[in-house]
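Re: coenzyme A structure - here you go.
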Amino acid sequence: MERTNDEILETEKGFITYRYIENAKSVYIIDLYVKPEFRNSHEASQMADAVCKEAKERGFTKLLGSVVPSNKGSTSSLKVLLAYGMRLQSSTNDFIFFEKEI
Ligand SMILES: CC(C)(COP(=O)(O)OP(=O)(O)OC[C@H]1O[C@@H](n2cnc3c(N)ncnc32)[C@H](O)[C@@H]1OP(=O)(O)O)[C@@H](O)C(=O)NCCC(=O)NCCS
């Protein structure tokens, strides 16, 4: 937060970092992490829900996410974004964008 002005929500189980993009009325999920012992209990979904709730209250209308195919675990990341109801928005070389109305 000190270095970039991005936002973070942390629990004892994991964290989610995100950024508000004012001119696009969007909130972008930068990173998401759940400790291995707490996975598959919808912890990630709950953190994303909390970000969406806060964004909606601030008048933001869209959630953005991305996957870098060459990153480790990118296929799982893709599955998680799709499971959360995100849709394909666009892609460039080695970068795929997803979005969801909130
Ligand atoms: C990816 C990660 C954040 C998921 O956390 P989690 O708390 O286990 O996720 P949830 O339980 O909230 O799962 C959300 C949905 O994604 C699906 N999902 C989660 N991990 C998955 C995986 N590895 N492969 C396929 N689907 C997966 C779940 O089945 C669930 O779908 P559902 O709502 O239809 O049941 C966690 O595994 C992690 O921290 N991984 C390492 C870091 C990482 O890859 N981060 C990038 C994420 S975009």
